[in-house]
Amino acid sequence: MVVREQLQEVYQAAKSLLRLSDDLIAEVLCAVADEIIAQADVILKANEQDLSRMDPANPKYDRLKLTLERLEGIAADMRNVSKLPSPVGKVLKEIVRPNGLKIKQISVPFGVIGIIYEARPNVSFDVFSLCLRSHNACVLKGGSDAQDTNEASVCIIHGVLKRFGIDTHIVELLPGDREATAELLHARGLVDLIIPRGSSGLIRFVRDNATVPVIETGAGICHTYFDASGDVAKGAPIINNAKTRRVSVCNALDCVLLHRTRLASLPELCSMLSNSNVIIYADDEAYASLQGHYPDNLLQHAQPDSFGTEFLDYKMAIKTVASLDDAIDCINAIASGHSECIVTEDKAAADRFCSEVDAACVYWNAPTSFSDGAQFGLGAEIGISTQKMHARGPMALEAITTYKWIIEGNGQIRK
């Protein structure tokens, strides 16, 4: 089936979603979650085929890799989504005008959502669960790196949909080639919204070339600022968790900003990082503080491009700043607007940082690794938006609905 025909099938199937009950949708999601575990060997075998084509040193390798534990997490997220109330049909605003017109603003699904993503096979299940719960159909355009895993995942979803008598075209996986991407980007009238998930290069390409509306889920260039009044006992594990929990995800830490008066605390702040062989690119002051206290083979002098880089690897930069103002200015100048953190015991400093840093998620004494839809209690996420129109931060059910106005009259006419 050519891509255009696939998209037309999804467009037609989307209409049937409005007639599905919330209870049925919840039952389907739980059934898919069960099937993920029951067919884990099928998914993992397909994933092994994808992994065999990728260099393990590639930062995308960890994103691509699935394990039984990760599949269990995906299934658990899907069950969580099944328990969430539907975001569709909510009365957002209700007005009775002096002329008697009754006006309601009601939440509705977008219709068809296209997702373009790279080596992130969990996205296939996450997107399906959120789109089904919000009565949206979805078009999946994964990268060729994960094509085998994505095909196995969608095959499992289709099997469950058939069992429940639901049109399988409510979720379609496009071919992994670039031609399919181009077709999706220009599918006005068939696709209502496109959300890219991946590198800054992918997001920029989608934004610059799509004629379908796009919500950017930007790359994560994340900072942690250790303030003059920062607590080292809190700061060291916060930095370590943000950097090493999973280096290949967008909420991973890329740069520590350190108040100059706390240079003596830097060796202790970085002490846990050496256990994960994190390479540190330090400016001159930070380098001098760490020299002799951090492994020589892991300590390097920072270069200009060390700052403002999303490493997606066991690498991190350190920059010394003179004040809170310098930290805020630095972040707003080079960060991506994803997630930023301050470690401080000074509430006034924290309040200023949280107010003035321009990011979707701003943390006080907690790591940026919490930037995740499930961690925010949203079930799962379809992405983390770094733009300011419509949605910002972790996007879950409510973020993939729009609204319409229902106006009830009794014969009124406008003069």
Observed structural traits:
single chain, 415 residues, alpha/beta, seven-stranded parallel sheet, 14 helices, 16 strands, 20% strand
Q: How many strands appear in the DSSP assignment?
A: 16
Q: Which term fits the overall shape?
A: globular
Portion in beta strands = 15-25%
Runs in which pLDDT lies below 50 for 5 or more consecutive residues are none
In sequence order, what are the helices and strands, one letter per element? HHHHHEEEHEHEHEHEHEHEHEEHEHEEEE
The helicity comes to: 25-40%
What does the largest sheet look like? 7 strands, parallel
Strand order of the largest sheet: 10-9-11-8-7-12-13
Instruction: Indicate the multimeric state.
Output: single chain
Give the termini separation: 53 Å
Radius of gyration, rounded? Answer: 23 Å
Structural class: alpha/beta
Kindly report the average pLDDT value.
Answer: 93
The total count of helices amounts to 14
Description:
Helices cover 38% and strands 20% of the residues. It has helices spanning 3-17, 22-38, 40-52, 60-64, 68-83, 122-133, 147-163, 178-185, 200-209, 232-244, 266-269, 284-290, 324-334, 347-356; strands at 91-96, 102-109, 112-117, 137-141, 171-173, 193-197, 222-226, 253-259, 279-282, 299-301, 315-321, 339-343, 361-364, 383-385, 393-395, 401-408. The strands form four sheets. The chain has a seven-stranded parallel β-sheet, sandwiched between helices. Strands 5-4-3-6 form a four-stranded parallel β-sheet, with helices on both faces. The longest helix has 17 residues, at 22-38. The N and C termini lie far apart (53 Å). 46% of the residues are buried.
